[in-house]
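Input record (one chain):
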Amino acid sequence: MDTQLIRWPSPAKLNLFLHILGRREDGYHRLQSLFQLLDQGDSLQFEVTDDSQIQLVTPIPGVPDEDNLVVKAARLLQKHGKGTKGCRIYLDKKLPMGGGIGGGSSNAATTLLALDHLWQLDLGIDKLAEIGLRLGADVPVFVRGHTAFAEGVGEHLYPVSQPGLWYLVVSPGIHVATKDIFTHPDLPRNTPPLRWQDYQFESTHNDCQELVCKLHPKVAKILQWLLEYAPSRMTGTGSCLFAVFPDKVQAERLLAALPEGCRGFVAQGVNYSPVHSLLERLKRLE
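The corresponding structure, as predicted from the sequence alone:
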């Protein structure tokens, strides 16, 4: 198989809940969450080169390459390389930015996993997750590739299995900066800790949701609309929302009825990342 032509999946995630337990002295927050991986997302292609250049062939408008997590991940990984290999990267971006569904973090993780394989570094998942944490708190969950319960700042991950429910993910078309939410004085920071074995969707919440809805009335309006049809919640620091369904048909029916001014997609929850499934297939063919 020509690995130069492969499309590497970069799956989205949902925070099925997000509890903020407190704030550390370094400014980071102690939290608990359940990262649900989805079977939909972006994709990337990597063309290995014999020079040390990292080129993003498909830049994102308004985002300088040096600020793109894909480029940052490739350059960070390159420092651990045995040689001087570079690459040209093609990013097919479908997930909205600033939506709380992990687009940038997932792109970074897929870059680490793919280039570790293509550059033949074989650093191992633990090392890649350690590198990923330097890029962002959500990157390790994508590197490890399992739906997981998270603690700490998101770096302590415990793989869990969830039923393959269907989700309608809705983007209101609003960019919410994570930093703005986590530094806001009105953000709740005192939710009691939860044992992951006691998790139930109905008894959890998203501590960021009320604040984001207050700051962005459009998010609040769409959330109220979704709640009329299914259990619904905001993911991460927003602005994306999700509604939970037992089957694909119901989710697609509501997708077709979305209010004007927002867009969405239907995805199924998976317990194992599609990029890891691809890696396993590639290794079997070697």
